[in-house]
Amino acid sequence: MLFRISQTSSSIIRPLILKNSLNRSKFSTTSYTKSSLNVAPAPQGVPHYLTHADLSAKEIYNLLASAIQHKHNVKYLNKSSGAPLAGKTLAVMFSKRSTRTRVATESSVTYLGGHPMFLGSQDIQLGVNESLLDTSKVVSSMVDGIMARVGSHSDIETLAKYSTVPVINALSDKYHPTQILADLMTLHETYGPQPSSPSSYVAHQTHPSKTLPGLRVAWIGDGNNILHSMMVTFPKLGIGLNVATPKGYGPNEEIIRHAQSEAKSTQTHLMFSSDPREAIKDADVIVTDTWISMGQEEEKAQRIKDFAGFQITSQLAKEGGAKSDWKFLHCLPRKQEEVSDEVFYSPRSLVFQEAENRKWTILAVIDALMVKKSFD
């Protein structure tokens, strides 16, 4: 059943602090940081990267343009960064496993001449032996930036609230902004002018604001952090979004209202449904993600049952009426039930290009926050 949302959203203030977050992780420690504590937050003016709901379309495009230029400079021109982060340290605090984000982050900091200090769950337990408030104040006093992969989004907000250095959201239960930057960069490279040979690169010659508006993306899957990040980003950039989630697995209602408000202001298509075929109609791009996120393993059998009919296949795309040249995205890791091998390993699939672009977009975010000190 198709439904459209017509409510208007409340204003969102930077940094975004939402009252009703998603289910908290078992390591959550908001009890340590209640407003009754007489602890002042860090001084205002420190830039953070928590969600694209905080950024303007121009600021998002600036990050994309920077990422595209970095890729050209490093991969095709073998250009040195000049080591602007020499003597600087980025604390990489991950409470969850990571492959692409960790490799992208550590290699990006190293390219910029800095030191990535990885602190995994065995090195530092966010909110277990020490409150997030205390961790934020202590760690930020010793490093020049923090990149954190957490459970609840309120955890990353707490880190940012008390940190004296920039905080980057490497993933929370509510948002995964760096992934969406990589998706957008991949779409720009795909729908913009094409190079004459594999050894050349031309994406930096065209601004992404010329290639991305007007595209239509179909999300077929769970109402998770990837979808939430698309919802607060795509309408803002003029990218149409069709969403299909099984009944009971829809996205956060507050984020729906925010997305609707953005879509209204940019006159961009936004549709929600529980029918994958309905969402695939006229799609340029079909996107899915894992149906069982970290921490949801006990729900696997029920989720696979509830997501029956949501596997991305060529037949589903044909029945739904996707564009003839439709493309496929998946943030990885991928499982067979989410997308068929026929699609995943086909020329339509952009997943490995998308994965590589995690590096260039994370490099752009680190460069903006720790070198330029601004998204402008």
Describe the SSE topology.
Layout: H1 57-76, E1 89-94, H2 100-111, E2 115-119, H3 132-140, E3 145-149, H4 153-162, E4 167-171, H5 177-191, E5 216-220, H6 225-231, H7 234-237, E6 240-244, H8 253-266, E7 270-273, H9 276-280, E8 285-288, H10 300-306, H11 314-320, E9 327-330, H12 341-344, H13 351-372
Parallel strand pairs: 1-2, 1-3, 3-4, 5-6, 5-8, 6-7, 8-9
Helix pairs in contact: 1-5, 1-13, 2-13, 3-4, 5-13
Short description:
The protein has 376 residues and is α/β, with parallel strands linked by helices. It has helices at 57-76, 100-111, 132-140, 153-162, 177-191, 225-231, 234-237, 253-266, 276-280, 300-306, 314-320, 341-344, 351-372; strands spanning 89-94, 115-119, 145-149, 167-171, 216-220, 240-244, 270-273, 285-288, 327-330.
3D architecture notes:
The chain is α/β, with parallel strands linked by helices. The chain folds into two domains: 43-174 and 358-371, Rossmann fold (3-Layer(aba) Sandwich); 177-356, 3-Layer(aba) Sandwich (Rossmann fold), CATH 3.40.50. The protein has 13 helices and nine strands. The chain has helices spanning 57-76, 100-111, 132-140, 153-162, 177-191, 225-231, 234-237, 253-266, 276-280, 300-306, 314-320, 341-344, 351-372; strands at residues 89-94, 115-119, 145-149, 167-171, 216-220, 240-244, 270-273, 285-288, 327-330. The strands form two sheets. It has a five-stranded parallel beta sheet with strand order 7-6-5-8-9. It has a four-stranded parallel beta sheet with strand order 2-1-3-4, sandwiched between helices. Strand 6, helix 8 and strand 7 (270-273) form a beta-alpha-beta unit. Mean pLDDT is 89; it is low at 1-35.
